[in-house]
## 1
Amino acid sequence: MAFMDIFLKIAHGVEFKKFKDAVKRNPNDHVLRARFAKFCLNHYFSHQGVSRLDEIEAVKQFESIDHLELRELEIYYLMGKYYLGQDDKMAADVYLKGIKRYNEFSHHDAAMRHEFVEMAFSLALNLLKLENNHAGPELEQFFKIIRHTYLKNFLTERVVLKRVIGWPTSVEEIVIEESPLKGS
């Protein structure tokens, strides 16, 4: 088992150095910086926060890309998780920035609504918890987007109610049929 730990530590060190060198060569590649920060944070969390180097590098990379318009919500989730318990106000700020990013991009790109909805929902739930279930304007907008997107998709299906023979009249079967409008 000790051999495997040593091997994993060496592999992480090599990958860390590759990222660090790549960022030095391409300081304006903000997607690379986001990937590096996620790499560091994932390693930090998987090793229960014992890697100080990963911690420092993740914060440094996040601060360099925080103001940019990246379509990368996972970095906000991971940074919020990093600050959670240490600085809850900072964690809430990071989660809120992630929700704002989702709201902004979902208005421009409907595909992003679906692609990042799970991560955005995690951000929203964590933010709600930190704000004691008080939904500010950005969270309200987020939930409206979600409600509109998924309720609209549900209603494109035609729902037909039929009574089930032999059951009491209060029990009904819901049969979902394809809408004739769907796919056209």
## 2
Amino acid sequence: MRRMFWLRVGDRNLHLLKLFGSFLVFGAILKVAEAAYYIFLTVEKVRFAKINPALIEQLFGWSLTAPNGFSTQDIIGVLLGPIASFMFWMGIAAFALIIYQSGRVIVPIEEFEQKISEHHKHLIRRAVEHARSRKR
């Protein structure tokens, strides 16, 4: 038998794993958007650094070939961090979706049936019998 953890707020039950997964998905999506922004920002900085090599030290604070211009190694070195951050947060977002979706795989039929009162069982039984009689 699998256990699911529920949080009761008012009249509603919240599945704790789905709640945690939804917060993780939302945070990861925000961080993915931020990492994508930093990629575009870095590309714009590289573009300005190629146009005006005097801005290299101000834009990046370092360069292998600062006085002469911005080399291919510099461009790769500058873009590695934002791209790695983007890929990391995409992985976290995928993991968060797996956590969020795990609530749909587990169906605790035994535990749910225990929570139903006799009155509700009688109402459900009558509704099922009524639906069967209408099909005939």
